[in-house]
Design goal:
31% of the residues lie in helices and 27% in strands. The chain has 252 residues and is α/β, with parallel strands linked by helices. The chain starts with a strand and ends in an 11-residue tail after the last strand.
Length: 252
């Protein structure tokens, strides 16, 4: 294990008297890309929100450095007259946007967009972006913070197959070149198998963890996802699971 960036010790999240996550522990090192998989309602996004500090939790979360977060989708009014430059400047500059974007901010934002292959998007209206373009902008926003940890909650959802492959390669490159740690939530198990160093299988509790080649077997998938059938997806013959929202409470 490389230098620890994130450590969870016995983390539990309870909302309305119901435990959504229970006694989860793991450590994540610099330059490591870990997949978080499990059925709908298993606690994946809940765990990310606890790490982000958005939810109260018991246990301990130790983080060394800043967090960059790429959500599954950005909820905003697409008719809002805002460019990509203005959107990214919101989290960088202190002065109001009505006074314009500072030259240093424009330069920084432009460099970050270029880094994620989105240099041509700088002056485009945010509401006119495609799904893939918007995800590149959100990744640029996350990377602008120079994060030690990237949290990626199904970041390629709604992106076409070609765009998804390019986006996933971009994430992997960022993790490797800049040695940040990353947690990727994905329903596409072929992506998990191709990209990640380690897999964490969660269904309220952490059921198992290990290398993708060892864990992505029919037996483990049936245990984690509650026995639902797997189908083969477009990348390679690795099971891609359709989830039905059941909360099967398997323990170790």
């Amino acid at each position: 294990m490389s230098e620890p960036v994130l450590s969870l010790e016995g983390v539990s999240v309870e909302i309305g008297g119901r435990k959504l996550v229970e006694n989860v522990s793991f450590t994540l090192g610099a330059g490591e890309l870990v997949a978080l998989i499990g059925p709908n309602g298993a606690g994946k996004t809940t765990l990310l929100r606890a790490i982000l500090g958005e939810l109260r939790f018991s246990g301990h979360i130790h983080l060394h450095g800043k967090i960059g977060y790429v959500p599954q989708r950005l909820a905003f009014d697409r008719s809002l007259p805002m460019t990509v430059l203005e959107f990214l400047a919101l989290s960088v500059q202190r002065r109001p946007l009505a006074l314009g974007v500072a030259a240093r901010v424009r330069q920084s934002v432009g460099a970050m967009l270029e880094r994620v292959g989105g240099a041509s998007l700088l002056h485009k209206p945010l509401g006119g972006l495609s799904g893939g373009e918007l995800q590149r902008v959100l990744l640029a926003s996350a990377l602008e913070r120079k994060p030690a940890l990237l949290l990626l909650d199904e970041p390629a959802a709604g992106v076409d197959i070609e765009g998804e492959a390019a986006f996933n390669e971009l994430i992997l490159r960022e993790v490797r070149e800049h040695q940040c740690a990353a947690i990727l939530v994905s329903h596409d198990l072929s992506v998990v198998a191709d990209m990640t160093d380690r897999v964490l299988c969660i269904n309220r509790v952490l059921m198992c963890e290990g290398k993708a080649d060892d864990l992505l077997t029919a037996e483990t998938i049936a245990r984690v996802f509650g026995g639902h059938k797997a189908v083969y997806d477009h990348h390679r013959p690795v099971p891609h699971v359709h989830e039905h929202g059941h909360d099967h409470r398997h323990e170790h």
